């Protein structure tokens, strides 16, 4: 029992909110699957959805074996948590009515703050799943499904779990010594601007470069086949993001309320900012732009939602909406085929949100830190830049090594015939839409009418 972080009765309200938050964050991955699935061509929609669903399976298994321990075990050399400390989720469940050394008898279970440690494990698992799934959008239409699952497993182990330790493992939350970004550098990343979005965005860029361009890109237009899917996915992401950001308060409290509001405000501002760019640049505001702007705002406010007021949230959202709308065109300028704009939205949005903490953070926020524009000087901005840069570098190097290892062993890319046929049929032997049956029914109906 000594290895438990602490023993006691959890707070019922905090526990209920965190259970709900964990479920909300899990919902984000099916939301992402619809968001990405609607953006690809009809012959690849099931494959796109399966990449997210596959991540749910692979990461859950690894997290329960050693992922949580690497992320939240005792710090080893400022790099990882002790992989043996919670191996197989040892010391997480405890007894529902174990002896309480303080109260004598009664319910006493391992705690993380005021919630059961098991609930904290579940909540953080959902972050690991969505981070890996985000990468898939950069390599749509051309990555073999088996290679994706292998990449997801190795990347989570080598890249995500250590970075989660740096960013999310605060000293004594689980009775352990935590990571260097959270505790020594003290950069502010409330819910994963570095660990999730910069991490996934950098990985998506490197993997897309190593995998190569889609056949016909950029001459061939790769239009979204189902924009209602995209809008549905964006709506589910926005809904689930309240668990992502407000849930990171790890309690039902004022911090959760403040982050809930700043998340909403920044997301709305980003959507409008993206639509404004489209209107001025292209003459039309599009539904795809609205959905993309929503996600850009959610990404940018993720690291900063606890450190800004309303003005800061509006500024971060507006800047992210404009810059991300402009950044998605960089792939054409520099020649990298980021299929669904993971770099333009998640990497750029994550950097914007992380760095702007150093500019617009204010002491009236829950984080109680002042950025440059509120008299805090450059100190916090430097911390934010160091944290973002470290995660970016780790992700780039780690992803490159993993991708090349897979490329030169089992191979990364589907063969040209499979790509032309579509990955739904070549990889899964399925189609999302039975167009042949639909066509025959239409022909019969036309014959009757004639």
TrEMBL record:
Transmembrane intervals: 16-38, 45-66, 115-136, 148-170, 190-212, 224-244, 256-277, 284-302, 308-330, 342-361, 381-406
Tagged with keyword Transport: yes
SUPFAM superfamilies: Ammonium transporter
Pfam families from the UniProt entry: Ammonium_transp
InterPro entries on file: Ammonium/urea_transptr, Ammonium_transpt, Ammonium_transpt_CS, NH4_transpt_AmtB-like_dom
Annotated ranges, domain Ammonium transporter AmtB-like: 16-433
Residue ranges that the Swiss-Prot or TrEMBL entry lists as coiled coil: none
Subcellular location: Cell membrane; Membrane
Keywords: Ammonia transport, Membrane, Transmembrane, Transmembrane helix, Transport
Highest taxon in the source lineage: Bacteria
Membrane topology summary: Multi-pass membrane protein
Major subcellular location class: membrane
Gene3D superfamilies with a match to the protein in the record: Ammonium transporter AmtB like domains
Protein family: Belongs to the ammonia transporter channel (TC 1.A.11.2) family.
Record-linked NCBIfam families: amt
Stated name of the protein: Ammonium transporter
Organism: Skermania pinensis
């Amino acid at each position: 029992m000594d290895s438990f972080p602490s023993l006691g009765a959890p707070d019922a309200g905090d526990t209920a909110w965190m259970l709900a938050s964990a479920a909300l964050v899990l919902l984000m991955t099916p939301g992402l699957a619809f968001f990405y699935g609607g953006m690809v061509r009809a012959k690849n929609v099931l494959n796109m959805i399966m990449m997210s669903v596959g991540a749910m399976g692979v990461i859950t298994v690894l997290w329960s074996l050693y992922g949580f321990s690497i992320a939240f075990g005792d710090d080893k050399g400022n790099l990882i948590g002790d992989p043996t400390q919670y191996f197989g989720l040892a010391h997480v469940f405890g007894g529902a009515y174990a002896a309480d050394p303080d109260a004598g008898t009664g319910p006493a279970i391992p705690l993380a703050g005021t919630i059961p440690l098991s609930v904290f494990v579940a909540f953080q698992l959902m972050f690991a799943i969505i981070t890996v799934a985000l990468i898939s959008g950069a390599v749509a239409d051309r990555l073999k499904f088996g290679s994706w699952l292998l990449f997801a497993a190795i990347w989570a182990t080598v890249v995500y779990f250590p970075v989660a330790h740096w960013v999310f493992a605060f000293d004594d939350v689980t009775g352990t010594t935590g990571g260097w970004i959270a505790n020594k550098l003290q950069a502010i990343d409330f819910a994963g601007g570095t660990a999730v979005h910069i991490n996934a965005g950098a990985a998506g860029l490197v993997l897309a470069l190593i995998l190569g361009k889609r056949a016909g890109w950029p001459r061939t237009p790769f239009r979204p086949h189902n924009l209602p899917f995209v809008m549905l996915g964006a709506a589910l992401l926005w809904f689930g993001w309240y668990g992502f950001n407000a849930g990171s308060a790890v309690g039902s409290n004022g911090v959760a309320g403040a982050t809930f509001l700043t998340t909403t405000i920044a997301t709305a501002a980003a959507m409008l900012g993206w639509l404004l760019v489209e209107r001025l640049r292209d003459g039309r505001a599009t539904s795809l732009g609205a959905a993309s702007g929503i996600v850009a705002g959610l990404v940018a406010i993720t690291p900063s939602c606890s450190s800004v007021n309303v003005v800061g949230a509006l500024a971060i959202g507006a800047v992210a909406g404009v810059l991300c709308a402009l950044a998605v065109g960089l792939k054409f300028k520099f020649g990298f085929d980021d299929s669904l704009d993971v770099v333009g939205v998640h990497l750029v949005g994550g950097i914007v949100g992380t760095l702007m903490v150093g500019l617009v953070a204010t002491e009236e926020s829950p984080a109680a830190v002042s950025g440059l524009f509120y008299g805090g000087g450059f100190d916090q901005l430097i911390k934010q830049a160091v944290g973002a840069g470290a995660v970016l570098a780790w992700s780039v190097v780690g992803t490159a090594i993993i991708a090349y290892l897979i490329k030169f062993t089992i191979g990364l890319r589907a063969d040209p015939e499979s790509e032309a046929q579509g990955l739904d049929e070549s990889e899964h032997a399925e189609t999302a839409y039975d167009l042949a049956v639909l066509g025959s029914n239409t022909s019969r109906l036309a014959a009757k009418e004639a």
